[in-house]
Amino acid sequence: MKRGLIGEYAVSRVAGEKVRAFVPEPLPPNPPIAFDGPLQRRLEAAVLAIGRLDGASALLPEKSLFLYAYVRKEAVLSSQIEGNQSSLSDLLLFELEEAQGAPLDDVVEVSNYVAALEHGLTRLRKGFPLCNRLMREIHRVLLSRGRGREKSPGEFRRSQNWIGGSRPGNAVFVPPPHAKVPDCMAALKRFLHAEDDDIPALIRAGLAHVQFETIHPFLDGNGRVGRLLITFLLCHAGILQEPLLYLSLYFKQNRSVYYNLLERVRREGDWEEWLDFFLAGVQQTAEGAVVTARQLSKLFLKDRSRIEKAGRRAGSALRVHEALKTRAILTMSEVSRTTGLSFPAASSAVELLVQLKIARELTGKRRNRIFVYDRYLATLNEGT
């Protein structure tokens, strides 16, 4: 349904140039979302896929391990959308204090994303409301180190920003003037907590994501906070029991469609077209996460079975295998510390895993060696 422009332009002068900044109308859309046959079916399919994901995660014997790894994959993907070149391997190496060589600026940015996600989830689990204060906290953690730390972490912007182009005067899109940001974000908060509009949680998340991206309330990091908002909303609403649904891979794979639809919503008010795309992404992402979880469970069981056939060395090797399931990349000293094995015993166990082609040494050196659980990391790396 094409409703026309879903806001108004505020005209001002920035650095001597005339600038038209877009101020969106408060949500929900008017007229309301048209839940005709196709969109209703899309919503039902997405809800069913999330239910399967929640069910599969509940049955995972290694749920905490899967969560640990999946959160880090999301951090890499979400940062890559912003042009970050860091990989999942870089992040895992960075998290090993003894490991050297990971590209510092990019990997610090990804590490901040993990910390911001975990901070937000911890606050929500303790009963803190999903509000503007929490979004500012998340933003502060996100920009606490590395690039962006000079861009007012944890504060709504006090100057005009823009998307595309070299200045507001030639930008692809100019968000609301900074003086309008507090009112826009207050209206968004009211929509997030509305209980009398009968809008399903998934639809609310899809609408809120566009509104947040349109307001662009921070000087930097808006895309990453906007993608986190989707997961936080679904967890807060009880749609997800665990934070296992992340749309960054879907948005990355469909980048041009994603940005075109955001702009089309603003210009034409066709929320239904955007929601069809968004719900298709939810369904695809949830189904992909279930497949990944099952692949990892099968991999762990298969490799454990192979190790158990190794005779006397199997006991120590199984302890190292458990350690590598916790973190797919480990130094020898970390293997020894994590497993409680002596350094010689840990070395012997790791060598067995290398012989079985379960683990692989990364450095090629004789000292300060680093080992990776190859197929585990390869499964997680799909799409990055």
- The number of strands is 5
Main sheet specs: 3 strands, antiparallel
Overall form: globular
> Looking at the chains present, what oligomeric state does this protein adopt?
single chain
The helix/strand series, from N terminus to C terminus, equals: EEHHHHHHHHHHHHEHHEEH
Describe what this molecule looks like in 3D:
With 384 residues, the protein is mainly alpha-helical. It contains 15 helices and five strands. It has a three-stranded antiparallel β-sheet. It has a two-stranded antiparallel ribbon with strand order 1-2. Strand 4 and strand 5 (370-373) form a beta hairpin. The two termini are 35 Å apart. The model has no long low-confidence stretch (mean pLDDT 90).
Characteristic key phrases:
three-stranded antiparallel beta sheet, 384 residues, mainly alpha, Arc Repressor Mutant, subunit A, Fic-like fold, 15 helices
Brief overview:
The protein is mostly helical and 384 residues long. Helices cover 59% and strands 7% of the residues. It has helices at residues 37-59, 63-81, 88-95, 104-125, 132-142, 181-192, 201-215, 222-236, 248-253, 255-268, 271-308, 314-326, 332-339, 343-355, 374-381, and strands spanning 7-14, 17-24, 329-331, 359-361, 370-373.
